[in-house]
Structure formats: C-alpha cells, structure tokens
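Researcher: Here's the sequence for the chain we discussed earlier.
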Amino acid sequence: MQREDLPKFDLPDVPGVYLFTQGKGKAKEILYIGKATSLKDRVRSYFDIELISTRGPRIVDMVTKADSVSYETTPTVLEALVREAALIREHLPKANAMGKDDKTFLYAVITDEEIPRVLAIRGAEIDFKKSCVLTTGAKLKAIHGPFPSGYQLREGLRLIRKIFPFFDTPKPVGEGGKTTQAKVEFNRQIGQYPRNMDRNSYMNSIRNVSLFLSGRVKTLRTTLTKEMKQAAKEERFEDAGEIRKQLFALDHIQDVSLIKEDRGEEEVGPRLEAYDTAHLSGTNAIGVMTVVESGMPVKKDYRTFRIKGVGGKSLNDDIASLKEILSRRLGHPEWPLPRAFIIDGGKTHKKAAEEVLKEVGIGIPVVAVVKDEKHRPREVIGSLRAAVRDADAVLANSEAHRFSLSKHRAARNKSMRGE
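Model: Thanks. This is the structure I predict for it:
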C-alpha cells in the first residue's frame, strides 16, 4: 500500500480497530490488527517517511505487503481494546507476533469457582488445553485475550469493574486469611467490590464482564436492554433502574487514561534505558546509558562508564562489559527505573543482562535489538513481554549507539593528543 491509497478506504476520525490485509476472496490474509483513538490518524501514521525508525522492521514489512485496510468503529477506546484482543485471538496475524510469543501476553481470565474471580494472567502461566492456571491450579471458566498492552488491560479491568463489580483477589474468595478478607472489605467500602449482592446478581455481573472482555459489547447491550424491559414489566423498578445505569455507563465510559496511553503508543513511548559499548583495540573502552522518555531523549539522565574489565575480563568482551555497566548502573537506586532495559545484541546479550537484574532482585524486562551486517535493526527480541513497541526499542538503541560513538571518538582524540 501507498499513502495515496488511503482516501479510498474512507477511514473515520473515531475509535475502533483496523485490519491490514493482503489478497482477495478466500486468499485474503489478515496481516495485522490494531486499535486506535482515531482510525484515520493511526492508519495514516503507518505511511510516515521515517517508518523504519519509528515502527521497526516487522511493521515496515507488513505495510509493504498489505494491499488493503478495513476497520470497525467502536463507541469508546475501551471497546476498541477488547475488540482488538478478540480479533487477534481469532485470526492470529503474523505481524502481531503471535505463535510462540503469545505466552508473553496478558490474558483476562474468569475462574471456575463458586464465586468467580477476574484476573490478569500471563500466557506462560496458563495451560490452555486444560483451562487452568499452572502456578495455582485454579480452573478457568473463560480466557479472554491476548492483550498486547498489560497496562491497558489492567486499566480496562478497572473501568469495567466500576460498571460490573467482580473480585480479583489472589486467592479464592473466602480463603487467604485476614489479609485477603481485609482487602475485600476495604474495596467494598470504596465501591470496587460487590456489596450486598446475592449470588445470582453476582453471576450476572460476571456474565456481563465476560461478554465485554470477549468483544461482544453489542450483545451485552441487547441483553441488558431486554432484562431492563422485563424488570420494568414485572414492576421490579429498582432492578430496572440499576440496569439503566449500567447501560448509561457503557455509553459514557470515561476512558481518558486509555485515550492518553493509546495516543502515547501512536506518537511517543515509555521511559526506556538503552546501553551500548565501543572499543578501540582493547583501549578506551566506553559504555553508555541513554534515556528515552515519551519518545524524546532525556540527555540530563545520560551516563558514561569507562569499562574497567572487572575480574580480569578483556575490555573487548561485549558480554562482560554489558554486565559491568548494568551492575554499576544498578548501584544507583536514586536513578529512576525504566519500563525496560534496551541492549544491543541478541539472545546471549539479553540473557546476560537478565542475569544481572536477577542477582539484585529487579524484575524489569530486557529488550534486545539485533543488527544485520550493516548495523541496521533486523529483529527486536522481548518487546512484547516488556509492553514496548519495536519502534521505541529501535529509537532508544539508535540513540545509545550514537552517543557511544561520540564519546568514544572524544576519548580516542584525547588519547591521540596525549592528554
């Protein structure tokens, strides 16, 4: 597709989901599914000149192959979020990086218990064949997702719970001792958990949550409307009034935080730390840390490390240098932590960085940017688990590489002058 092709698709300036496709008829393939605050603006952004640096190689390849784009509008960004997840689960588009990587996504699950709970669980913790949580053995009644953004799923659940109450305690309701019960009572008091609901009402609430999370919000509205009319017919006016409030809330969800985050995904990115090293025949080994926040370099937070070769390691040992830099950086608790650490290299470099973080008990994910022989981004590893866009990882990595080269040149020139 080309930018000049966009007008014929007549994309509206409203929330919804979009699907990049290739081919026609039975040969039609869905390449990528996404959501947007504005379908028109989001899809148009895929045709920016700097697409490779802002979106990453996987998305560039997808746009090159696509020959059409379709869409569905939604009343709110929250509905776009759940519809996106439902469509990804149904079609498994390659450019959404599914397959083996789906276990790094978050899913919204509903437990199969006397009092069901709604939880956000990583795919790696779910036995999809047996519908249970591997870590606890809890049986699952429903699995919704995957949701590419962990933050947006949790924020979405918070918004949904305001309309349809549910429990999200770590242990089954009624278990877990005083701590769990105290949490339940506190959340009841602030209106976050069901209060004075009988089991039948609570199960209806869980049904509504499941319909919403599966992206079947139209069905949910129809169901609630029928129940409201039936309650009014039977002169259960209090029940009818409660359902009317729920229908109103569905149409007036204040998903400001989701809109902000969605626009952030479109225009900027989270706080990331990126690392790189540069060497000159084993001398002047320099390591750098750069920071990108909201898509912009935060140069006041940049740091330079002169590699010491700890433990007798060669200054040309990339893995040892990376571990040394990270260890020294983590010795500064006063520095704010990022959403993810971005490193230059492949799986071996990523594993080395993760070992350093594990030693100090920090669970922040590591993302690796793999380069080709011309030092261009070829692959991004771990971005899905970190809830970081490939484009943001590539941007942070490029800034770290630029900064390391500038520092290395300065050190080399100083050495040549004999200073």
